[in-house]
Design goal:
This protein is α/β, with parallel strands linked by helices. It is 42% helix and 16% strand. The model has no long low-confidence stretch (mean pLDDT 94).
Length: 179
């Protein structure tokens, strides 16, 4: 899936960017809008991803409907336990490792042990975020993540397509080991 995260532009620019991205990604790849329910609804996105200070999950679900994907970032065990009772499709465990792309975390990084603990406390799919790259992707999957969210590992690469393919390969190898 592709998540569009934009913190710096106007609502109109965000909308236009979302429309452009929706046109270029294949229809079978879901487009998730970060934080902005209005933009998700306006562009007919496949889902919405919320943070702890965003719109309440129950309100977002009511407005999105039951078919849309809805995810929530959790930064600690208490937030994860509360999220287990919400109408969510997945949780983002954030951050796994320190990352330069997002520096406003109020909690320490989960690490692999924290991710294992999170996996044991929920049946929801887990997306690991923060400091993930080709070198550590396999161990993050093996620690319990169902998916990975990456920015720098692809966008900072000299060859983003090759970086994405390499990450996909690491994920597939790790899943085979898990069985």
């Amino acid at each position: 899936m592709v998540q569009l995260r934009e913190k710096e532009c106007s609502s109109r620019e965000f909308y236009q960017l979302a429309i452009m991205i929706k046109k270029i990604i294949p229809p079978e790849i879901p487009l998730i809008i970060n934080d902005r329910l209005d933009i998700a609804l306006a562009v007919g996105a496949d889902g919405l991803h919320l943070g702890q200070s965003d719109l309440p999950v129950e309100i977002a679900r009511k407005l999105l409907g039951s078919e849309a994907l809805l995810g929530l970032s959790v930064e600690n065990i208490e937030q994860l336990k509360e999220a287990n009772h919400l109408p969510l499709d997945y949780l983002a465990i954030s951050p796994i490792f320190p990352t330069p792309t997002k520096t406003d975390f109020s909690q320490p990084a989960w690490g692999l042990e924290g991710l294992r603990l999170a996996r044991s406390l929920t049946d929801l799919p887990l997306v690991a975020i923060g400091g993930i790259n080709e070198e550590n992707a396999a161990e993050v999957i093996q620690a319990g993540a169902d998916g990975l969210a990456v920015v720098s590992a692809i966008c900072a690469s000299a060859d983003p397509e090759q970086a994405a393919r390499a990450l996909k390969g690491k994920i597939e190898q790790a899943r085979k080991k898990i069985g």
